[in-house]
Amino acid sequence: MKKLKLTAYLSVIILVISCRNNDQADSPLLGTWKAAKTMTVSGNNGVILLQNSLTGCESNTTYQFWSNGDFEYNQYCSSPSVRETGTFSYGESTKVITFYITSGGGNQQGSETLYALTESEMQIITGKTDYDNDGVLDTSIIIYIRQ
Length: 147
Hints:
Helix content: 10-25%
Keywords: Signal
CATH class: Mainly Beta
Protein name: Lipocalin-like domain-containing protein
Number of strands: 9
Signal peptide: 1-25
Strand content: over 45%
InterPro entries: Lipocalin-like (IPR024311)
CATH topology: Lipocalin
Shape: globular
Oligomer: single chain
Structural class: mainly beta
Domain Lipocalin-like: 29-124
Distance between the termini: 53 Å
Number of helices: 1
């Protein structure tokens, strides 16, 4: 009887771990993304108001997402550079990436809202301002290219 209980217990643990590790297995985020450009989109009509290619340290900023639900973020424009690691989840209907950051000895939660996600581009909303002074908030975006 004890062997049966132990076998059942171990089976449940293995099932839970294997399901957790595959939670993001089909996520469209998987892979490495490198910062490429910024743009501002009109809140009034969706027209691109401004677009700039990133250069220098900004162009070396990366996200990496793995199928086991882990992520790594690297940003080199501050001193010291920023490296965050942990786990992530992605809500396709909400277009929100939730980060559970475990690097640096603490547990923090953060999120990013996507403007768009395609096979080759991940567009992250960085803010809303009335760039063109038309009384409607415009969307600032940073675009990452899949590597």
